[in-house]
């Protein structure tokens, strides 16, 4: 609040003037209190800032020490050094900021308080004093008696002088008040403005500093993506090596010892041995021995210089020592001395003796003819006590998957930014990606994109086929249909990450560039797909003709309804050998001939006729409304992956239910269509593998009824519940047994047995049975690469006699 005291009013010394003076004095007192508090807070802030700078300096010193410790890694050392320099510069900027705060707030405001407010207080004291003197003079003048002239004159003179002094002092006091009121504004604003400019300079300096640092940070960010990939690859290699070594037999340490005269480091053999000292006590000490450069040496610690036991092995002999109390001893004898040593086992003793003998022979050969070294490399010059083999690699990965996927049109460049030679893929979209775009896709979440490496990960055959049937060209025609129309710029290689991320989110999350079909276009699409499905249903490629099912022969004691026959799961042991026993009871050619049926238990037959088969011919009914879900429904049956991808892009629910057709889902229709890749595409896009129709039948039921062995294998791998029963209380296994489909019976029984084995091993078991894994892998490859071998059985017909 601005308070100005009028000079004319002060001469009157009116009550209004006195009230104004009181208000000014109260305001100045409060101003002094606020300024003192602000100065103290500023001092506290500066002290805290200095403490922060001190702690920050220690942190920067820690970074420098870490950089010095990382001298072997040039990238880490140079980067940390540069970061430490930048952070030290920021500490300097902070110091300048706190110094400016001390000058602008503390010093400047303290000066204002001490000088200007002190002058105001001194003027106030004089004003109060002269006001009291004036009041006394007025009282004395009023009390002077009329008849005492000399007293009247004295009182009048005193009053006149006092008034004159009061007028002079009150004018000075009012001047001081007005000057203070005017100066307070400029001093406070000047101080705060200086403080704010100090902050502006500080942040500008910081911005300029990190702008210069940004290219390095950007470069490191790009390198980090590659480092993450390299770390994942190294981790995978180490885990594989760990698994390989873990499979070896380490029941005896002597299996790890091997002799290699052609070792790169010159050490032909090394290991621990006990050595007998040559002193009077003949003590035995354990030392690390090695044969290197035709010498026998040992070390107590790694950093110790090796102690040479034998200078030249050509002059030595080695022999067993059976005449001492200790076991497994042998002696190396040279012309000047002998050395007694002890191994941990007989095998190790034999290995060391053989190694010394081989080294002696090698030393002579090397001395005589250097050309024979080439012959040793092709001969059995290396021996090992470890005979365990390496596990064979059966999964498709690396260059094989990469070449197949990149051969698809458009896949040779990243689908989103055009970066050539991509090494990553989104398996639910069916596209290839560069490393930067793959990181952005991974951040979207698996409900939008599932990222996998084309070189580091293994690829199942059905997933590889899915990648080959879609591709960047097909997906971009869907997800970028309106991009040019909307004027959106497609990212280029090297664009900033935030621009690429914004484009990818607009493309796949918001689906901004997808062209929405009209109702008429959607209707024509659905009708076309339904007609296409009908043509596929009538073609021989959809379901190849199968031989008629065998007629089971009943054994004595069983009836036609199969009431006394063992259940489908009987005779399967819950043990590691259960899979072998079950396979032994299954025909080797996975088919049930009449002869097999005569020798094996009869299959249970239905006692009553169930309702019509779900494998009926697909009939297209005019729906109540057309939707992307209906398009996905018929596209799944028609085996058209581009139309399925388009339907999902238009917002189709992957688990959409057709209430007009027994509540069937697209996944069930994909089973009807007979395409393994179509099922894989829906499962990768979160289709429910256990969703049932009105008959209580899920995809596994339908695949079993149709005899689609590859689909049964796929659903079991994806967690399908084989214990689910339909409204007729039939499980997939019961249906497969009635249909006499030995392939599917084998898969279902193996899956159930494997599940029981894992439950028996505990809740954290992940191994399962090896036979189960091998057989499922064989069926997977057969279903993808040679499906005709699996089309050997007639589909299930519950109405057959």
TrEMBL record:
Compositional bias segments (type: Low complexity): 379-388
Superkingdom classification of source: Eukaryota
UniProt keywords, alphabetically: ANK repeat, Cell membrane, Coiled coil, Endosome, GTPase activation, Membrane, Metal-binding, Repeat, Zinc, Zinc-finger
Listed GO MF terms: GTPase activator activity; zinc ion binding
UniProt subcellular location: Cell membrane; Endosome membrane
One Pfam family hit: BAR_3
A cellular component term, taken from the record's GO annotations: plasma membrane
InterPro entries (alphabetical): ACAP1/2/3-like, AH/BAR_dom_sf, Ankyrin_rpt, Ankyrin_rpt-contain_sf, ARFGAP/RecO, ArfGAP_dom, ArfGAP_dom_sf, BAR_dom
Residue ranges constituting the Arf-GAP domain according to the UniProt record: 399-521
PH domain location: 266-361
Compositional bias annotation for Pro residues: 601-610
Polar residues composition bias: residue spans: 559-577, 792-801
Record field: compositional bias (Basic and acidic residues): 367-378
Regulation: GAP activity stimulated by phosphatidylinositol 4,5-bisphosphate (PIP2) and phosphatidic acid.
Positions annotated as ANK repeat: 662-694, 695-727
Membrane topology (UniProt): Peripheral membrane protein
Segments of this protein annotated with the region Disordered: 367-396, 524-610, 782-801
Function comment: GTPase-activating protein for the ADP ribosylation factor family.
Domain notes per entry: The BAR domain mediates homodimerization, it can neither bind membrane nor impart curvature, but instead requires the neighboring PH domain to achieve these functions. PH domain binds phospholipids including phosphatidic acid, phosphatidylinositol 3-phosphate, phosphatidylinositol 3,5-bisphosphate (PIP2) and phosphatidylinositol 3,4,5-trisphosphate (PIP3). May mediate protein binding to PIP2 or PIP3 containing membranes.
Record-given protein name: Arf-GAP with coiled-coil, ANK repeat and PH domain-containing protein
UniProt organism field: Seriola lalandi dorsalis
């Amino acid at each position: 609040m601005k308070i100005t005291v009028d000079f004319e009013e002060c001469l009157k010394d009116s009550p209004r003037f006195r009230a104004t003076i009181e208000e000014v004095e109260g305001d100045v007192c409060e101003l002094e209190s606020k300024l003192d508090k602000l100065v103290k807070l500023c001092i506290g802030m500066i002290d805290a800032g200095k403490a922060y700078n001190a702690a920050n300096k220690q942190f920067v010193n820690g970074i420098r020490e870490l950089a010095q410790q990382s001298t072997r890694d040039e990238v880490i050392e140079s980067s940390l050094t540069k970061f430490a320099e930048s952070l030290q510069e920021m500490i300097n900027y902070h110091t300048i900021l706190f110094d400016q705060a001390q000058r602008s707030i503390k010093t400047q405001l303290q000066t204002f308080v001490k000088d200007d407010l002190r002058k105001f207080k001194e003027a106030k004291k004089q004003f109060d004093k002269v006001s009291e003197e004036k009041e006394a003079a007025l009282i004395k003048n009023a009390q002077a008696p009329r008849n005492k002239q000399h007293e009247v004159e004295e009182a009048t003179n005193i009053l006149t002088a006092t008034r004159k002094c009061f007028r002079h002092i009150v004018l000075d006091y009012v001047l001081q008040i007005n000057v203070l009121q005017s100066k307070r504004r400029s001093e406070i604003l000047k101080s705060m403005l200086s403080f704010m400019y100090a902050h502006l300079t500080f942040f500008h300096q910081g911005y300029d500093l990190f702008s210069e640092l940004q290219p390095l940070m950007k470069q490191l960010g790009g390198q980090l993506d590659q480092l993450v990939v390299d770390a994942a690859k190294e981790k995978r290699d180490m885990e594989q090596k760990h698994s390989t070594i873990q499979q070896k037999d380490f029941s005896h340490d002597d299996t790890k010892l091997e002799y290699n005269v052609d070792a790169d480091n010159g050490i032909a053999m090394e290991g621990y041995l006990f050595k007998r000292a040559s002193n009077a006590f003949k003590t035995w000490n354990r030392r690390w021995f090695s044969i290197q450069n035709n010498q026998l040496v040992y070390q107590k610690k790694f950093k110790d210089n090796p102690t040479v036991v034998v200078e030249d092995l050509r002059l030595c002999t080695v022999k067993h020592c059976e005449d001492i109390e200790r076991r497994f001893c042998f002696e190396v004898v040279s012309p000047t001395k002998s050395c007694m040593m002890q191994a941990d086992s007989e095998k190790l003793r034999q290995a060391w003796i053989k190694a010394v003998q081989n080294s002696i022979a090698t030393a002579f050969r090397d001395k005589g003819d250097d050309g024979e070294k080439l012959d040793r490399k092709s001969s059995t010059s290396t021996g090992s006590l470890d005979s365990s083999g390496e596990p064979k690699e059966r999964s498709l990965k690396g260059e094989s998957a990469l070449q197949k996927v990149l051969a698809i049109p458009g896949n040779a460049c990243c689908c989103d930014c055009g970066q050539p030679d991509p090494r990553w893929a989104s398996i639910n979209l069916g596209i290839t990606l560069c490393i930067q775009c793959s990181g952005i896709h991974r951040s979207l979440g698996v409900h939008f994109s599932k990222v996998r490496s084309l070189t580091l990960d293994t690829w199942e055959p059905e997933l590889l086929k899915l990648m080959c049937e879609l591709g960047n060209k097909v997906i971009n025609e869907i997800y970028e249909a309106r991009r040019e129309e909307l004027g959106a710029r497609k990212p280029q290689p090297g664009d900033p990450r935030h621009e690429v991320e914004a484009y990818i989110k607009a493309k796949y999350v918001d689906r901004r560039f997808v062209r929405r079909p009209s109702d008429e276009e959607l209707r024509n699409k659905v009708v076309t797909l339904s007609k296409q499905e009908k043509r596929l249903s009538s073609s021989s490629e959809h379901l190849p003709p199968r031989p008629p099912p065998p007629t089971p022969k009943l054994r004595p004691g069983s009836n036609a309804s199969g009431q006394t026959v063992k259940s489908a799961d009987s005779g399967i042991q819950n043990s590691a050998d259960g899979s072998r026993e079950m396979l032994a009871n299954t025909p080797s050619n996975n088919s049930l001939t009449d002869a097999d049926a005569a020798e094996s238990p009869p299959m249970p037959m239905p006692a009553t006729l169930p309702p019509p088969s779900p494998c009926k011919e697909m009939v297209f009914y005019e729906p109540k409304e057309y939707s992307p879900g209906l398009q996905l429904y018929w596209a799944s049956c028609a085996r058209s992956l581009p139309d399925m991808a388009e339907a999902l892009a238009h917002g189709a629910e992957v688990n959409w239910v057709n209430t007009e057709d027994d509540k069937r889902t697209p996944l069930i229709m994909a089973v009807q269509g007979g395409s393994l890749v179509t099922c894989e595409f829906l499962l990768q896009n979160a289709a429910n593998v256990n969703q049932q129709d009105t008959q209580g039948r899920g995809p596994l039921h339908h695949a079993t009824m149709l005899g689609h062995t590859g689909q049964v294998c796929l659903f079991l791998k994806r967690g399908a519940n084989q214990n689910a029963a339909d409204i007729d209380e039939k499980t997939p296994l019961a249906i497969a047994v009635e249909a006499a489909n030995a392939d599917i019976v084998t898969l279902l029984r193996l899956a159930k047995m494997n599940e029981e084995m894992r439950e028996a091993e505990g809740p954290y078991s992940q191994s399962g049975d090896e036979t189960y894994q091998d057989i499922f892998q064989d069926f997977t490859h057969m279903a993808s690469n040679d499906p005709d071998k699996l089309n050997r059985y007639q589909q299930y017909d519950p109405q057959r006699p």
